[in-house]
Task: structure prediction
Amino acid sequence: MTTRAVNQLSRFNAVSLAAGFAFLYLPIVILVIYSFNASRLVTVWGGWSLHWYREFFNDRAMLEAAWMSFRVAATSATIATLLGTLAAIALSRGERFRGRTLFSGMLYAPLVMPEVITGLSLLLLFVAINAERGFWTVTIAHTTLTLCFVAVVVQSRLGSLDRSLEEAAMDLGCDPARAFVAVTLPLIVPAIAAGWMLAFTLSLDDLVIASFTTGPGSATLPIRIYSEVRLGVKPEINAICTLVIALIAVVIVVASLATKLSSARGESAAPL
Result:
């Protein structure tokens, strides 16, 4: 292949990449820019202003919905991380037990299950047991949704570790539990942290499942935003969405750094 052909191919790849990024992120960029719009009309530019951010912080209903979302996301992410990590350890470190395939399939089912079905099934469960819908029902629903994601992240990290490290610790006198805590756990902590952040982000963004399982006085921020948008998009909504985008971007960056740190530690701990 000639140099000219290579340059043309590279130019085509660059244009394709730019078009793909524009398709994905141009609407988000427009939303962020218009969150600083001074005009009350969303489609009319009136200059740069932080007015709508101040409006959000003065909107008590929105602040309460945001606080509810953060509480639900933090609680469900913590529970999902604990259960998902235990499930990943059972699948990666446990001997092949009877029903392992069924357990694995049930654990990963929410990954491909439509959220409408998950939300409806949880709603029917809460109605059947006469549970009052509110903070805890939404938290349980989000834990069900995010647990499998944590298990995937942690199990992939456990699968890449060298089992000889634990075996060496046991040869030096550690029992299996102590060897896991002293050797393996520090190596998978970044993966556990990444799983928690992923679960937190998924819970914070969820609308469908929360709409099935929430109750009066426990609306999350996505539900509140959706109810406001149905009556017309206000510039305040752009400001709220920009803040959420910024928060999620920070969480994703931290999760990516934690995953890279986990991989680097695993490589540095590998035997020569």
About this structure: The first helix runs from residue 3 to 34. DSSP finds eleven helices and no strands in the chain.
